[in-house]
């Protein structure tokens, strides 16, 4: 037996010790019953267990350390029970953990320091317990976490500034604690943030105006604190109401917030002179930095990339929902040709609409060879473990003996290849730079942001998808390899499409494919561009990017030359 689902069945009594005999069990789901007593220690024999769902019962005692011996556990949900005492300090032994939910229990310890070492954790919900102590600086180690809910406890101390480094975090709730000090200005770096609740604490100081840059913030609650000063009014704050800021000491701002207007600042004459003097200095500086315009634009585009490119789904990636074959048939109107997005080496891609109205892209694998089935398994494994704002998000899958498909988030603007080579589309310089920074951000995560480095092995414009905001998402992980220490040499010998990031950089700005018929014998895309530098760069640049009539011709030429030099540095024989 691999899966045991018995949720909401009205089962009473305790979990039998004999549960440990089900050694092949991968999923155990018993939530929403009337189970009582402790979690049996025999649970440690379920060495293949990936998901443990025991929430909404009356289980009690302490959370046993035997759970830490389940090395393949991805999801553990013990919420809404009566567990007491401390959290296991050994949870960091389960490196595969992606989802922890202990909410609604009676835990009364501090959070163990080892908890913050689970750097691949996606969701952590410890709300409504009696946890005490302060939030350590190491909370910022959870670099890929998307949900962090510690509300309804007895946490004290300041909110650590390291939380600003959680750039994938979509929901943060620290409400109903005893936190004090200021709202950290570093929270403006949490560019994925949609939900922020810091209400019912002892926070003081001002509301950072920098929070106006959080483009995706849809909900904020700072009520019942001791905040003062002006309430920001731009960006997402344009949509917030007074309920978000009630019962603070001395807030002021717009009338719609039901607070008094802020007093107008009075500037002393001597201060005015200083201001005018400073403006004169700044004007002089500005006049001397025109030559650096391109670099400044690049920095702004980098911020734009981080500000827009976000995955906001709060569901864990470890267990994508199963979608029936018949729903996929219905979603694509019987795989009608009008819904065909393209064909590749392992099958076809279709656009579809699920029964709930979600528009999706379906990657249907043609099972003509064992390697194709292996590609499906590889892609499932990669997408199950990885999550980043510039990676394609998996919604679900469908798999049986005769059919395999991945259901992915649909990207309305198609692939980079379509935009590069179509006569109906054209990308300007800044758009191409921004797209490449999105791709680089995804690869940085694949190489360095996960426990085991991942090599994509098939990066090309066709596998770079653009959403409605022209943000890039790397897709198609069928050839990806986990670069573990034992098999790193073997894995790196596996090749797919010619080239990797550096040729993609070259192709994006030259509009020439590495496989173009002009490249033969000793001439390659790399050598062609290398020979053009530094004096004949214009001969290899996409003509759509540069024209002699361009008012910023020299700046653009220098910018693209730097990009080509970077690409060449990345593909030397011994990088």
TrEMBL record:
Protein localization: Membrane
Source organism, top-level taxon: Eukaryota
Segments passing through the bilayer: 275-300
Residues of the Protein kinase domain: 335-575
InterPro entries: Kinase-like_dom_sf, Leu-rich_rpt, Leu-rich_rpt_typical-subtyp, LRR_dom_sf, Plant_receptor-like_S/T_kinase, Prot_kinase_dom, Ser/Thr_kinase_AS
Keyword Transmembrane listed: yes
Keyword list, A-Z: Leucine-rich repeat, Membrane, Repeat, Transmembrane, Transmembrane helix
Classification via Pfam families: LRR_1 (PF00560), LRR_8 (PF13855), Pkinase (PF00069)
Protein name (database record): Probable LRR receptor-like serine/threonine-protein kinase At3g47570 isoform X2
Organism: Coffea arabica
């Amino acid at each position: 037996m691999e899966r045991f689902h018995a949720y909401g069945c009205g089962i009473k009594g305790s979990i039998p010790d004999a549960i440990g005999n089900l050694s092949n069990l991968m999923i155990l789901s018993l939530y929403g019953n009337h189970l009582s007593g402790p979690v049996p220690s025999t649970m440690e024999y379920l060495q293949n267990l990936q998901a443990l769902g025991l929430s909404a019962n009356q289980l009690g005692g302490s959370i046993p350390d035997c759970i830490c011996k389940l090395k393949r556990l991805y999801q553990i949900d013990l919420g809404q029970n009566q567990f007491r005492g401390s959290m296991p300090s050994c949870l960091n032994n389960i490196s595969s953990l992606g989802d922890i939910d202990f909410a609604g229990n009676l835990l009364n310890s501090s959070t163990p320091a080892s908890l913050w070492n689970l750097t691949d954790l996606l969701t952590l919900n410890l709300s409504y317990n009696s946890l005490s102590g302060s939030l350590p600086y190491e909370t910022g180690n959870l670099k890929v976490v998307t949900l962090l809910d510690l509300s309804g406890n007895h946490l004290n101390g300041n909110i650590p500034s390291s939380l600003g480094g959680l750039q994938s975090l979509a929901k943060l709730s620290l409400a109903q604690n005893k936190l004090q000090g200021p709202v950290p200005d570093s929270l403006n770096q949490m560019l994925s943030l949609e939900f922020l609740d810091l209400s019912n604490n002892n926070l003081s100081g001002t509301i950072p105006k920098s929070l106006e840059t959080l483009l995706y913030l849809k909900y904020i609650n700072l009520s019942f604190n001791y905040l003062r000063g002006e309430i920001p009014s731009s960006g997402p704050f344009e949509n917030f109401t007074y309920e978000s800021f009630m019962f603070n000491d001395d807030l002021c701002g717009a009338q719609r917030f039901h607070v008094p207007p802020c007093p107008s600042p009075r500037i002393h004459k001597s201060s005015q002179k200083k201001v005018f003097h400073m403006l004169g200095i700044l004007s002089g500086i500005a006049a001397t930095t025109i030559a650096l315009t391109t670099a400044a634009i690049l920095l702004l585009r980098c911020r734009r990339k981080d500000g827009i490119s976000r995955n906001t789904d709060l569901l864990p990636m470890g267990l994508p929902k199963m979608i029936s074959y018949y729903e996929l048939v219905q979603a694509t109107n019987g795989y009608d040709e009008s819904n065909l997005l393209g064909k590749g080496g392992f099958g076809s891609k279709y656009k579809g609409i699920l029964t709930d109205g979600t528009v999706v892209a379906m990657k249907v694998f043609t099972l003509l060879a064992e390697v194709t089935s292996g590609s499906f398994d590889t892609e499932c494994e990669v997408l199950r473990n990885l999550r980043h704002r510039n990676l394609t998000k998996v919604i679900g899958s469908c798999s049986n003996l005769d059919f395999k498909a991945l259901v992915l988030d649909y990207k309305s603007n198609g692939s980079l290849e379509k935009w590069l080579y179509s006569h109906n589309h054209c990308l300007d310089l800044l758009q191409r730079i921004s797209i490449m920074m999105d791709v680089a951000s995804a690869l940085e995560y694949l190489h360095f942001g996960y426990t085991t480095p991942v090599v994509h092995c098939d990066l090309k414009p066709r596998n770079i998808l653009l959403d409605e905001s022209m943000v890039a998402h790397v897709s198609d992980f069928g050839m990806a390899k986990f670069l573990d220490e034992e098999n790193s040499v073997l894995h790196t010998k596996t090749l797919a499409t010619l080239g990797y990031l550096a040729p993609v950089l070259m192709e994006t700005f030259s509009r020439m494919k590495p496989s173009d018929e002009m490249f033969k014998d000793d001439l390659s895309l790399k050598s062609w561009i290398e020979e053009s530098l530094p004096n004949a760069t214009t001969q290899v640049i996409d003509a759509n990017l540069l024209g002699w009539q361009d008012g910023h011709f020299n700046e653009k030429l220098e910018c693209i030359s730097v990009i080509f030099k970077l690409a060449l540095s990345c593909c030397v024989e011994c990088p």
